[in-house]
Amino acid sequence: MSIKRFAGIAAGLMLSTASFGAMATDLVIYHSWSAPPEIAALNVIKGELEAKGHTWTDIAIPHDTGSNVNLMSLITGGQPPNVFMESNPGVYRDIAGMGLGFPLTQWFNDNAIVDKLPAAVAASISVDGEIVKVPQALHIDGMLYYNMEVAKAAGVDPAAWDSTDAMFADFQKIRDAGYAPLAVGSQPFQVGYLTHALVAAVAGPDVYKKIYGEEVDPTALDDPNFAKALETLRLFANEAGPEAQNRPWNETTNEVITGKALMQIHGDWMKGEWLGAGKVAGTDFGCIEIPGAQAVVVTVDAWGLLGGQAEDVQNAELDFASVVLDPESQAKFAAAKGSTPVRLDAPAESLDACSTEVLRILEDPAQQVQNPHNTADADWQDSIWNVVFNFWSDSSMTVEDAIAEMKDNYDTILG
Amino acid sequence: MTHLSIAQKALGAEVAVRSAPYFPRKKKAITGRSIAVIVFLSICALFFCVPLYVVITTSFKTMEQIREGAMFALPNVWTLEAWDHAWNSACSGTRCEGLKVGFWNSVYILIPSLILSIGLSIITGYALALWNVKWAGPFLFVLFICAFVPFQIIMFPLISMTAAMKVYGSIWGVAIIHAILAMPVLTLIFRNYYKDIPQEIMSAAVMDSGSFWKIFFEIILPMSGNILIVVLILQITSIWNDYLIGVTFGGLGGQPMTVNLANLITISTGTVRYNDNMAAALLTAIPPLVIYFFVGKLFVQGITAGAIKG
């Protein structure tokens, strides 16, 4: 049976793949999501896409940030997906170089969407001056989530803190009440994210853009505010006991959910963990930006569309984009995934307390910056992660040492 | 030897092994030293079993208990929920039909890959060992060098080649790549095994006007049982556990179970369901384990029969 049967299967596969090009409204969607909240969110847009008469063929392959090898191999192999989840600008440059880019500036202008997006989102969807991404959802890299019950028991009100100094001033009081004030996880990824969130919050957007932007300005490393951000990072590191060693962020979140610690400062995907434990935003847990933050760091999940296709296929892809960016579906998607809509005009009544707060913060264009993965040179960013993780782990390393090492790395990598 | 029947003598090698001189050993008393060795070995075994213990117990726990954090505790309530979820309803993308989809894909990939890779290298090994092939030496040397080329650096050229052959993104694409990548090592294994076959057998066979294929199927193949078991196990394990080749060449519908598993456990910004992950990992690991369990003894025989020793 085997040979014939497999030949049959193989032939069937080839036929079916060949037919994707012919059937105009069948879209192949490439993404990396498989967790239940992510699937629930995808099903929102899948349903609406199907309502427009198109079909959704799914290909899910997990990958971390960096070069998206599987996407590139599908494209090289001649089976490019019509729509792909990708944020890395380098991938868009490669795809445009192959003649498969799909410039969207005109479409965004025609539909008057850009004004509805927060400034950091609008900035993140362009590559080399042309809009090429369809933003789906956003996360803030450093939000402060706290357990309201613990706050009450310890007699503190995190929402009243107006600076990190005010926050640290309350720590003794929280300890006296028998709680850990701050849960942290000692992992390069968490420390790296915390660092850039603190640079944006404490040192401000100008310093942030000079260090994490496309063009690095090394003089920003000498800025006293950058040193202050690192000093704040040291105060966070002091809260890391041996139990925090290599503890994943979600286990750290559980310290807060179970009431052992008051709060955690991390990306607001923490919300998924809280919702998973059956807690309600604004009732069981509060979410605020880092006290006194000058800016927040915005991470955007975005889709790319495949260009160089027949017109009916490209039109179907644009239908996909309009489904994604529809304010109603934005709100439904965000509610399912635990993220925040990318449109400032998403219907307010369907947002939870945390998303409402995030959209309030993002109304101010001066108060937001992009995630470094979108802008910074990958080697340079890696080197920052290395330095700050050593700094975090070695309490004898001074702020001056760390800055000197970063300068060294700058000279090696970008100098 | 005298009490052996003629039929038994005719069995040759079998008899030789059975009638080897047998010296009964004295039973030794258990000494302090051997106790120490046993204790040490038990500790080593336990050390390796601890992660396995955690994986297995976690897969039977509920998420509520896992959140409490006592990693080594036994499940409060033993439940098969995680196993059921992983097999039947775990999501890989928007398709929530569990690992069983990938399981069957893996089986469909495994069989043609096995046939192609073993078929290709057994013939090559046979030709190189027993026939006068021109440039056999340099060819072997090149094969040997190829065994050290990492797959990753030739991945994109291979994608272009399979795309040109119109097999990219199908199970056949995956099978061909498995066959090509396994060829250097497998050919060397077969070639070294056949090298030990006495030249006289070949001479006699050629004199009986056996053709290349006739000699292979009627004389060589029946002698290859041991080595085939070795290669079969090596290949089943490596093809089943492969992620990169399957994910790269499987295209839209041909992705193996390991890709489903990776989808299940790789979570960027969601909650982590450890019990499902552990059950899924165990489900994926079971097939090669079963194979080892059944043919492990033959595997050891095959290795000691000559092929890849020394």
TrEMBL record, chain A:
This is Probable sugar-binding periplasmic protein. SUPFAM superfamilies: Periplasmic binding protein-like II. Its main location: periplasm. Part of a binding-protein-dependent transport system for a sugar. Transmembrane segments: none annotated. Belongs to the bacterial solute-binding protein 1 family. InterPro entries: Bact_solute-bd_prot1 (IPR050490), SBP (IPR006059). Keywords: Periplasm, Signal, Sugar transport, Transport.
UniProtKB/TrEMBL annotation, chain B:
Its main location: membrane. One of its GO terms (biological process) is transmembrane transport. It comes from the Bacteria. Residues 103-295 form the ABC transmembrane type-1 domain. It is found in: Cell membrane. The chain crosses the membrane at residues 35-56, 107-131, 138-159, 171-194, 215-237, 243-265, 277-295. It is a multi-pass membrane protein. InterPro entries: MetI-like, MetI-like_sf. Keywords: Membrane, Transmembrane, Transmembrane helix, Transport. One of its GO terms (cellular component) is plasma membrane. Belongs to the binding-protein-dependent transport system permease family. This is Sugar ABC transporter permease.
